[in-house]
Amino acid sequence: MNPTIETILNHRSIRKFTDQVISSEHLSLIIDCARAASSSSHLQCVSIIRVTRAENRELLAEYAGNQSYVSSAAEFLVFCADFNRHQQIKPDAKLGFVEQTLIGAVDSGLMAQNALLAAESMGLGGVYIGGLRNNPEKVCALLNLPEHVFPMFGLCLGYPDQVPEKKPRLPVDLVLHQERYRALDAQKLSEYDEQMREYYRERSQGKSEQSWSEQISQALGKEARPFMLVSLNKQGFALK
């Protein structure tokens, strides 16, 4: 096993950070690694907003659902799908298609994963903040995002001040399909559910437990940000 694979397999979300700053050299390398990610048709349709002002961080933490680590992390980056740059190059660009929204989301994810892996290889940790999409219009206003730019998620980075247990992932038998999609294996799911219950029992010192199936039922038993299409449309995304 090489160091790259060790870094990938050792991933865990970090939500508590020390006061140590990230050097400009390390931050520059992290951004360079993000920029090196694959890009659909080489559109390079992502912009990264680095947020450093305390008052802006506090507002973003609030917008994201009062996630305090947004303001306490050494760095906070917002990954945005960006076709405004392309419109400036070609004013009559055909924009607003759902496919472009998907490309922007995929490219943002690829860049952010490169950034986090690079950071983790340097001894840093981080956590993604999808909660920015709780209040996308407020985020757009705060970051002065023009039409055809949309904040997909944020990324906290810093030196870890915790070593949480790795959260168990779905077993390979439930993820990897051969040639054709196969039905869900109820026995494998049951085994994973028990693994997740044990994980939460240990993490909470026996105060709570929840299976993955219960998590999914809770998460998908209600509307998920029903305002999202309107917010995307206001920024010129997913119009057609």
From TrEMBL:
Domain Nitroreductase: residue ranges: 8-159
MF-aspect GO terms: oxidoreductase activity
Matching InterPro entries: Flavin_OxRdtase_Frp, Nitroreductase, Nitroreductase-like
Alphabetized Pfam families for the sequence: Nitroreductase (PF00881)
Entry keywords, A to Z: Flavoprotein, FMN, NADP, Oxidoreductase
Source superkingdom: Bacteria
PANTHER family: OXYGEN-INSENSITIVE NADPH NITROREDUCTASE
Family to which this protein belongs: Belongs to the flavin oxidoreductase frp family.
Record protein name field: Nitroreductase A
Species of provenance: Oceanospirillum multiglobuliferum
Lineage: Bacteria, Pseudomonadati, Pseudomonadota, Gammaproteobacteria, Oceanospirillales
